[in-house]
Amino acid sequence: DYVAVILGNDIKITNGEIDINPKNYKDKRGKSGIAKDKKALKKYIQNCYYTLLTRGIYGIRLFIEDQDLRQYWKSRTEELKQNKK
């Protein structure tokens, strides 16, 4: 019912765009066959995180390792809160 997710160093933000660092993505089976296709790997990683982030029914705890992505997430969350009012 509650979920805790850590966004690791495999996902980051660069120049305002979500990007990945394939070297930091450690699931060898998950990236087998798509490891050389950065676009497909990015889509796969984002889908994994999306799935985890939508599983919490009553709540979610989130920790983001990348400092820039953490700041981006906070600013976007605040922006969405303001638009909701």
Summary keywords:
two-stranded antiparallel sheet, 40% helix, 85 residues, two-stranded parallel sheet, alpha+beta, globular
Describe this structure in words.
- With 85 residues, the chain is of the alpha+beta class.
- The chain has helices at residues 38-53, 67-84, and strands at residues 2-7, 11-14, 17-20, 59-64.
- It contains two helices and four strands, in the order βββαβα.
- Helices cover 40% and strands 24% of the residues.
- The two termini are 27 Å apart.
- The strands form two sheets. It has a two-stranded parallel sheet. Strands 2-3 form a two-stranded antiparallel sheet.
Helix vs. strand class: alpha+beta
In whole angstroms, how far apart are the ends?
A: 27 Å
How much β-strand is present in the residues?
15-25%
User: Mean of residue pLDDT?
Assistant: 90
Which strand order does the major sheet show?
1-4
Low-confidence stretches: none
Radius of gyration computed on alpha carbons: 14 Å
Q: Given the structure, what is the number of helices?
A: 2
Note the main sheet: 2 strands, parallel
